[in-house]
Structures are given as C-alpha cells and as structure tokens.
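re: ur question from earlier - yeah i can do the single chain one, its not a big deal. heres the input i used so u can compare w yours
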Amino acid sequence: MRCKKCNGVVARLVLAVSFISLSGVATTQETDKPGWLSRTTGELQVNDDSDPRFSIETVQPIFQSPDKAYTVFWQGRAAYRDSEWTTNIGGGFRYLEPGQMWMLGVNSWYDRSYEEDHDRWGFGAELFGPLLTGRFNYYDALSGTKTISTTATTRVEERAVDGFDFELEAPLPYLPWARLGTTFYKWDTEFTDDIDGFALNLKMDVNDWARFEVGYQDDDADEIFSASLRIRFGVSNSVEYTAADNFISDTAFAPRSVAERTLDRVERHHGIVTERRTVSTATGGTIGGVTIGRGT
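and the output i got, formated as tokens:
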C-alpha cells in the first residue's frame, strides 16, 4: 500500500509538471511548432465528487481528401486521478457534404482503466452544422464482475456498466465563443436500478489556447458540479471565436465554418462507469448500498 501511495504522488507530480510545461508551450509563438500540437490538449478537471483529474488528448489525421470531404482520423487519451490511470484509443470517419454546411461522423473506441482492469468498447455518431452539433455515444463493458477484496464474512464486487448518451450543443446568443451542451444519459446497472440523468456543460473559448468549462449533472445516484481548464498546445483553425477577440457579437447566432471541424476531437464520456457493492458471503445480499464510480 505504501508503494502504491508513493507511486500516486509521483504520478501527480509528473502530470502537474507536464501540464504546466505544456501550458508554457501553448503560450509561446507559433513559429516552428509542429502541426500536430494544435490538435493536442491537456486538461485539469475538478469536481465536488472526487480528486482532480489530469488528462492529455490528441486527434490526428490518417487521411484527408484535398477538399476535406472525407477525413479518417485517430484519437488517443491518457488520464490520471487518485492512483488510477485510464487510456482511450479510437478512430473515426467524417463526411463533409459538398455545400460544406453539414458534416456527419462515426467513430469507435476501446477504453481501459488499470486499477481494477476494467475495459469496454464503444461507438458514436456526430452531426455538425453551422450552429448546432449533435452527438450520440454507446458504451459496452467487456470486463465482468471483479472481486476487489474479501473478508471472512464479506466480499467487495465491482463491475463496469453499459450505457449511452445524447448531447445537443448550441452557441449562446451574442456570445459565439460560448457553447452550451445538454446531455441525456442512461447507465444499465445490475446491482441497483438503472441510472438516468442529464448534464449541462458550458464550454467557453477564452482565447486561442485556453478553454474553460463548467458543468452540472444530476441523476438517480448523484448530483455533481465540475470545472475544467483545457489547454491547446498550438493555435487551431477550429477556434473561430474567443472571448478575448470578440466578447459580444453583433449577430445573435454567428455561424461557424463546418469545414474547420473535420479534426475536432470526439467528445464522449471517456471514464469507465462502474458500480461497486459489499456482499454478505452468508446470504449473498448487498450490504450498505451501491457506489457508482464515474471513471477517470
């Protein structure tokens, strides 16, 4: 246990130093920066339910046609919170229609958390327009029920759960740099009743390299407030409006270029959601309720 705690402290220090260092890279001049940096971000998230989370994420092209009509890409992520690592690797395809007013995307994923060796796969679909974005994601747990610990009278079990979510995202009036996402989700649990909920997430591009997000979610298991800072390590063409450049627009809903969204990162619930319970070895019944883990 002592070694595990030491490793956790070291991991936090390494990630914090890396995040600060890469934040410095983001604020330097663009000269000589490789293009992939503009599609790489670091994030620090805090909420009222768990320890802070650090993550690094990148999305890179595999193939893109000259007119941007067809794009094939991959996306990777690594995240750390409270001694637990999660990695996500995915690939996707996006089709931009000839008028460049709408774009359809599909993607698939493999997710893994390492503390209890949970894994799952998932797929998603996206629809981008000049104002609105719609997203659907499905999650299918691959790992079965894990026995976390045992005593003479009890055992602790944990399992990853299936689920899905749907998000509709739109800009705020006269604030084109701020977009509000409304998400409805469901997690299919076995130890307790299924969890239905919704989330609101306000996404604000403060300047060319920083995005600040505040979120609220409420479901059958919990109510959570969160905030995060996402740092881009290079200036991205997909960031058309920022608070620093155009705080209030003359137009109520300023359209954006859909053609610049071809290499946007896929937004989904990357953390593997779990349910945990303590079971009586004598009766097989649950003792003390079920705990829902939101993942890393």
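Residues 1-6 have pLDDT under 50 and may be disordered. not sure if urs matches, ping me
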